[in-house]
Amino acid sequence: MPSTSTAPAPAGSTSAVSRPADAPCAVEFASVGRSFPSERGASRTVLRDVSISVKPGEVVAILGTSGCGKSTLLRIAGGLDAASAGRVLIDGSPVTDFDSRTAVGFQEPRLLPWRSVTENVALGLPRGTSKADGAARVARLIDLVGLGDFAGHRPREISGGMAQRASLARALARNPGVLLLDEPFGALDALTRLKMQDLLLDVHAAAPTTVLLVTHDVDEALQLADRIILLGRQDGVDGSTIAQEIVVPGTRPRDRGSAELAELRARLLDGLGIDRHGQARGIESTTAIPHFPY
Ligand SMILES: Nc1ncnc2c1ncn2[C@@H]1O[C@H](COP(=O)(O)OP(=O)(O)OP(=O)(O)O)[C@@H](O)[C@H]1O
Ligand SMILES: [Mg+2]
């Protein structure tokens, strides 16, 4: 993935944060389904028959309306939830429990307020990392996300975007084969969000890993992903499944204004049930749609 100009350049050698060339993992969702118990012993199907093959190092964005099961799918991939049907394989071996080959980044940074940025990032290091290796790795990651001058600060002393960068560094500290990101920039203002997108491209270039990115933001998906999976429900059938799969053309960083992307944007918005003016179809025009930030 090419680097971009607006994010901090990867600092010096990235040897301490790089994985071996073959280290990003393949992820296979094989007919994954998930149902949850509902009232009176019945069950409600949230996901149905989701099959996706993710190549090592690929960035796949998962889009879909609120409640369609995006986070559930991500949690299943990380072993934080279990599929009711089908399974997820990472590099051919099934995910059965919390999987140390994965790391998760959430919408909110979830930093420990009483610990410094350095200490928070170090929490992501795999067990058994030596003190010296850990310290070098944490320092390089903090540089990579542009927080070198804030390493000793507590979370309350840094901005929301900085906290989110620290959280990304903590996830990368594990050296994950698969990075699972659940709306990682969803709580940030529009400008910071764009900068974070560029940063993610730089981080991916410096420490290549497979990325599954859940987002509500069509433009973010078009900018960052190799491939976009749109989850949706078919009429009369319970549970979301793959409604559209789009291979995003061109290399990153992509021209946000290109006609090709505009066409894909329109297709995805249509698939999400949003008309060209940003209104959800079938919902009165006065209804706020906070989940669609475009
Ligand atoms: N542990 C659980 N028990 C019962 N229902 C659950 C559980 N986890 C998720 N659900 C239900 O599954 C559905 C999908 O939830 P999920 O969080 O995956 O949606 P989402 O697509 O990530 O939504 P959003 O875009 O709002 O984050 C929701 O209706 C939710 O209530
Ligand atoms: Mg979610």
How would you describe what is shown here?
- This protein is an alpha/beta fold and 294 residues long.
- It has a domain at 27-108 and 177-271: Rossmann fold (3-Layer(aba) Sandwich).
- Helix content is 27%, strand content 22%.
- It contains seven helices and ten strands.
- Helix 5 links the parallel strand 7 and strand 8.
- Bound molecules: adenosine-5'-triphosphate and magnesium ion.
- Adenosine-5'-triphosphate binds at residues 36, 46, 64, 66-72.
- It comes from Mycetocola miduiensis.
- Keywords: ATP-binding, Nucleotide-binding, Transport.
- Residues 27-258 form the ABC transporter domain.
- This is Sulfonate transport system ATP-binding protein.
Question: Short summary of the structure?
Answer:
By secondary structure, the protein is α/β, with parallel strands linked by helices. The chain has helices at residues 70-78, 117-122, 131-144, 160-173, 190-206, 218-224, 259-271; strands at residues 27-37, 43-54, 59-63, 85-90, 93-94, 102-105, 178-182, 210-214, 227-233, 240-247.
CATH C-level class of the domain at 27-108 and 177-271: Alpha Beta
- Tell me the CATH superfamily of the domain at 27-108 and 177-271: P-loop containing nucleotide triphosphate hydrolases
Q: Under CATH, the topology of the domain at 27-108 and 177-271 is which? A: Rossmann fold
**Rounded to an integer, what's the Rg over CA atoms?**
19 Å
Classify the beta-strand content into a percent band: 15-25%
Main β sheet profile: 6 strands, mixed
Can you give the helix content as a percent range? 25-40%
The mean pLDDT is 86
Which small-molecule species are bound to the chains here? adenosine-5'-triphosphate, magnesium ion
Give the uncertain stretches in residue-range form: 1-22, 283-294
CATH architecture of the domain at 27-108 and 177-271: 3-Layer(aba) Sandwich
Computed structural class = alpha/beta
Q: What pattern of helices and strands is seen along the backbone?
A: EEEHEEEHHHEHEHEEH
Give the N-terminus to C-terminus distance in angstroms. Answer: 25 Å
Shape: globular
Number of β-strand runs? 10
Query: Can you list the strand order of the major beta sheet?
Result: 6-7-8-3-9-10
